[in-house]
Write a structure and sequence with these properties.
By secondary structure, the chain is α/β, with parallel strands linked by helices. Helices cover 38% and strands 14% of the residues. Strand 4, helix 4 and strand 5 form a beta-alpha-beta unit.
Amino acid sequence: MQLSLIDTHCDTAFELYHKKQGIYENDCHVSLKKAEKYTNYTQFLAVWANKRRTDDECFEDFINISDNLFAEIQKNGDKVSLVRTFDEMQHAWRKEKRAVFLAVEDARILGGRIERLDILKERGVRYLTLLWGGKTCIGASHDEEGGLTRFGREVVEKCFEYGIVPDVSHANERVTDEVSELAHQYKKPFIASHSDLYEVFPHTRNLRKKHLQDIIGLGGTVGLNLCPWHIKNMILKGTLSADHQNKSELVLDVCSIDDVMRHVEGYLELGAENVLGLGCDLDGTDLPQGFSGIGDLEKIADAMAKRGYPQKLIDKIFYKNNYEFIKRNFT
């Protein structure tokens, strides 16, 4: 099956920097070599803020990691281009090159200093994942209660003014409500770059139906996440132990392509045909059974085809919905 791909979230830039490996060939989930099977390919690389480091240290990491990424792209300039706009992506594709957009995962790297957002803008950041975990200068993540802070609200508003798209993956329900309210005020979209569907599996990290409807109404996009822990309940009760006694133990279940497809089908049943894409969180998570990296994403297409979905819909999810989003918003 001939496929093109636009994926809205991976942590590969972080991994390349810390492993001291190159973007063309490496042992990460994502490499240019592994992506050669796709006719056209665009990847959003999100620089993650390490939870073990302070906000200021993570901002320094962003500078260093993005510098390293820029150098890798320049080194492989015959194969890949760093892009900021739809036209630049189109130009890269016409030259038979891959296109890379820069993003940031966890806006706490701003450390309460709004002027840092100018630096992100100057470096070409196109979306900003507001939260990752805990309570930060931005607000409350999915594992906490609370809403946006005053500074967090200022960041979201400034993002809309700057053309940086706010991303609610990892945000809790209240924060996402507040981002949606601001998005409606500004008449601009927000996204969930790598989120599965709460109505299929009610993990706090997953996107709720009401927020999906907001994204649909505002013309945003949603990226299907391959993190097994967000796809299904991975913990089961077992009865076997090392000494074969009948005492209860916790064991891990297997996450399969069928489990992934439940989220695809759930999104489609809720009307996400024109906003659903792939944001697989490669290099940021373990993967379902049978997946080892970007080259295996075609298994989602194969599973869709076996279930009778038309090629047109498969293309929408693999690239066309994100292509249209980029065309509308990244001028």
